[in-house]
Amino acid sequence: MHGTLSCGGIDHYCGIAGHDFDVRYNSFLYRKAPAVRLRGTPTLGLPVGATMRFNVFAHDHETDAVQWTEGAPTVQDNLTGRTTYYATQTCDFDGDGINDSFLATEQTLWYCPAPSDCVTAPGSGKPNVAEPPSAVKPVANVYSGR
After folding, report:
1. Residue 77 — left, alpha, or beta (φ > 0 → left; ψ -120 to 50 → alpha)?
2. Count of domains forming the chain
C-alpha cells in the first residue's frame, strides 16, 4: 500500500494510504526484501488501520519482514524463519492425471501443477525462498483455529 505524498525524494512514500490495510493468512517465501511495506498511514488510523497477523515469513524476524514509513501497524501472531518446506508429489490437485507438488506453510496450502515449472533452489528440489514462486498456485487458506 502506498501513500499520496512524497517523502525523502521517494514518490508515494507517506501521507494517506487508503482506508485500512489488513494482511492475514499469507505465506511469503522469499526474503531478499521486506515481504510487506506500508508506505503511509491508512485513514482508519494506526495501529488498528493496519494489521498483519497470522502470516508466514521466511524472514527471521517480523521487523525484517514488515516495514513501514510512518506509524507502526499491528504486527503479531506471525510465524517467522519458515524457510524449509518439503514438497511431495502424491496428489493430483488439478485432475490432469499427473501428481502435483504440494506445499504446506503452516497457514496456507499450495500446489504446483508441473514441478518443472516451479521455482526451486538449485539442485535441492525445494522451493527457493529468494524469489516468489510464480507457478505455484494456492489450494486453500487454512484457518489455524487461533
Report:
1. left
2. 2
